[in-house]
Amino acid sequence: MIVLRCDAGFFDKANFQAFNDMNIAFIATGKQYEDVKKYATSTDKSFWKSIKKRKQTWNYIEFGFRCSLWKFFLRAVYTHLENEGNQLLLEFARPDNVILTNIGVNDNVLRYCPKSQREYWLNIETIIGAHHSNGADELTHRGFKDFGFEQLPFKRFGPNTALYYCMVIAFFLFETFKEDALSDVISVTSYASTVRRKLVDFAAKIVKKSHQIIMKISLAIMETYQIQKIWKKCQIPVPIT
């Protein structure tokens, strides 16, 4: 199962039609056309529901949506922010959003979804929560830049391409290493600079004794970062399936 989350820049018939044809689920930001806003705001309040996220309350209503030239319908959710923290917002200051998705319309997008998770994805509050988390997708790019660098060193496209692909592979290995070996010591969402500062950049002494190479570190580092536990996990690689 593939789920795409995209902003209003992807609002286009060709994009949505392609996602549908490939049976890819998507949760996208729609455009606030005047007739859509008028339809939602004129709907009886008894049809509206609410969802709370931390200290914010969103009112929402669900309906079918398609533009005049489209031959397919999408599931639309119109959300209306009620408050910001403990502060209630005046009517004109409440940001509204239109969320479009083919989940619940195209049955084939959930074909490979486990039955235990199907109800989760069909839940309208799951779709709203996924849309609110759109910004979290940018954290991957931030983590990638923190791991490597933004400016490529060469003047020609070919060498820069090769270096970029190598950096992507190295970043993937770094992320899997965090999950497989470091998850008990440091959060898997930690950036590379944090991992370097805590688990790489500490004082150590390497000595050779009795045909063995020994790395000596302080007891505080050993206990704080559970070096022995990390070492044991490194000796038992996770099988690739």
Provide structural commentary.
Strands 1, 2, 3, 4, 5, 6 and 7 form a 7-stranded mixed β-sheet that branches. Strands 8-9 form a two-stranded antiparallel ribbon. With 241 residues, it is α+β, with helices and mostly antiparallel strands. The chain has 9 helices and 9 strands. It starts with a strand and ends in a 6-residue tail after the last helix. Helix content is 39%, strand content 22%. The protein has helices at residues 13-21, 34-42, 115-122, 124-132, 138-147, 157-182, 192-199, 219-224, 227-235; strands at 3-6, 25-29, 49-53, 56-65, 74-84, 87-88, 96-101, 205-209, 212-216. The mean pLDDT is 86. Strand 3 and strand 4 (56-65) form a beta hairpin. It folds into 2 domains: 3-132, no CATH class; 143-235, no CATH class.
Short description:
Helix content is 39%, strand content 22%.
Give a count of the beta strands, DSSP E runs of length 2 or more.
9
SSE run: EHEHEEEEEHHHHHEEHH
Shape: elongated
- Please summarize the sheet with the most strands: 7 strands, mixed
Number of self-contained structural domains: 2
Number of helices: 9
Uncertain spans, ≥5 residues at pLDDT below 50? none
Structural class: alpha+beta
Average per-residue pLDDT, rounded, comes to 86
Any idea what the radius of gyration is? 25 Å
Subunit arrangement of the protein = single chain
Helix fraction?
A: 25-40%
Distance from N terminus to C terminus (CA atoms, Å) equals: 18 Å
| Beta-strand residue fraction | 15-25%
